[in-house]
Design goal:
The chain is an alpha+beta fold. It has a single domain, classed as K homology (KH) domain (GMP Synthetase, Chain A, domain 3), CATH 3.30.300.20. The protein has five helices and three strands. The chain has a three-stranded mixed sheet. The longest helix is centred in the first third of the chain and has 20 residues.
Length: about 110
């Protein structure tokens, strides 16, 4: 069970990361539509698992590898925004959130029977 502090920090990170990906989409990510679906933070608030949903791209795994490779730059930019609210800026690890693909697959399978 996550504490109140963990929930607040994860929501703040989700909001700030969402704004970052929206702002830097053209420059860093070739205009891809990226959504931060969930952020899970460790109890000591130093590790954050960030789940991204990527639209309109076929090479999702390569994209996640690219985002993980520029994690330091993302951490620096987010750190400038939240430096007065947390003691230590968490390290990010990005993962692909494939829940929308899973829903589409289930929907497709259900429609095949009709």
């Amino acid at each position: 069970m996550a504490s109140t502090r963990e929930n607040k920090v994860s929501r703040m990170l989700q909001r700030e990361l969402g704004e970052y990906f929206q702002r830097e989409s053209r420059r860093l990510f070739d205009g891809k539509m990226i959504t931060v679906t969930h952020v899970r933070i460790s109890p000591d608030l130093v590790q954050a698992r960030v789940y991204l949903s990527v639209f309109l791209t076929g090479e999702k795994e390569e994209f996640i590898q690219y985002v993980n490779s520029i994690e330091g730059q993302i951490r620096f930019e987010i750190g400038k925004k939240i430096r007065h609210q947390v003691r230590k800026i968490p390290e990010f690890t990005f993962f692909l959130d494939d829940s929308l693909d899973y829903i589409d697959n289930i929907d497709r399978l259900l429609n095949e029977d009709e």
